[in-house]
Design a protein that fits this description.
single chain; 320 residues; alpha/beta; Spore Coat Polysaccharide Biosynthesis Protein SpsA, Chain A; 7-stranded mixed β-sheet; 10 strands; 41% helix
Length: 320
């Protein structure tokens, strides 16, 4: 019997290899009878499809090419807004995951979470937690949110779109409205799909634990033991497939090397960076570690994040 749940990734060929690695981990941490896993790839060539289709088939992952007309000219970042068009009809419950993630534990509780029609689960973005201070960066962020039309009373509810647990019923309307709004914001938005979703669908979002969308830099605040993340999100640059950089370990970089050893035909598709940029990233990440340990590790930031997590446990709409 085909599961009615689907773990979905959307990507272009530039991110296809790291997305494949995340999907392998999702398959490892998801019983096959509970959910299928699908990668929707935009602009894949016949040669790339041949290599990745074989690798995906051996890992029990579906690789589904996406024609450009399905997305009305949108890029891979915005493809999550079109999931209702892309995902086969047999899937009713969707778990969207960004490709710059690693899956560390079972996804079963999130897949089994009850999500009402027209609603979705998403974790609050770390930007929102930073608004608890009154420094220059917080003021700039407040000005930005207001400039794109987000009500000041809702700034601290701004959510991240990197992991979304979706009831498919209603996502067509949500995605369509967000796409229409994005087109009016074009050139003004820093976080294209995320800003649009927050502006049109904040009232449809149910808060979700950072367990399911843990920004890797929060390790610098010592929050990992309290939150026990199952999905690590490598926001910003560098990425773990670029090498070992703080705050992640060699094992997280090694994950991509292991995939290449298993599927050597995919080696040309691993994104690389020049050595000079690696040196720059190494210095940058060391500096960030010191800065973020002081900033995110402060009582006000840590306290705000942990209060958010506790509030989910006490809420009648608590998420796993």
């Amino acid at each position: 019997m085909t599961p009615h749940r689907c773990i979905c990734y959307t990507t272009d060929t530039g991110y296809l290899f790291p997305t494949f690695v995340s999907a392998i981990q999702a398959r490892t941490h998801t019983p096959s009878e509970l959910a299928d896993i699908a990668i929707f790839c935009i602009g894949i060539s016949s040669e790339q499809e041949k290599h990745f289709s074989a690798a995906c088939a051996s890992e029990d992952i579906r690789l589904l090419p996406v024609a450009s007309d399905k997305l009305e000219g949108a890029n891979a970042m915005l493809a999550r807004l079109f999931l209702d068009r892309l995902v086969p009809d047999e899937y009713h419950d969707l778990l969207y995951i960004d490709g710059d993630t690693q899956i560390k534990n079972l996804l079963t509780p999130l897949l089994l979470a009850e999500v009402p029609a027209g609603r979705f689960l998403a974790a609050t973005d770390p930007l929102s937690f930073s608004l608890q201070s009154s420094d220059y960066k917080s003021k700039r962020l407040t000005s930005y949110f207001s400039a794109i039309g987000l009500n000041p009373d809702r700034h601290k509810e701004y959510f991240n779109s990197g992991v979304l647990r979706i009831n498919r019923a209603g996502w067509d309307a949500t995605g369509r409205e967000a796409w229409a709004l994005y087109k009016t914001l074009r050139g003004q938005s820093r976080y294209p799909d995320q800003d649009a979703l927050n502006l049109v669908a904040m009232d449809r979002r149910i808060p979700m634990s950072l367990t399911w969308n843990f920004p890797v830099f929060l390790r610098n605040a010592g929050l990992e033991p309290e939150i026990a993340p199952r999905i690590i999100h490598y926001m910003g640059n560098p990425k773990p497939w670029h090498g070992q950089f703080a705050p992640w370990s060699f094992s997280e970089y090694e994950t991509y090397l292991q995939a290449i050893r298993r599927y050597p035909e995919l080696a040309p598709y691993i994104p690389n960076i020049p050595w000079l940029k690696k040196l720059k990233y190494s210095a940058q990440q060391s500096y960030k570690k010191v800065l973020e340990t002081a900033t995110w590790g402060s009582q006000s930031f840590r306290g705000g994040i942990l209060r958010y997590e506790r509030s989910l446990l006490q809420s009648s709409t608590a998420t796993p």
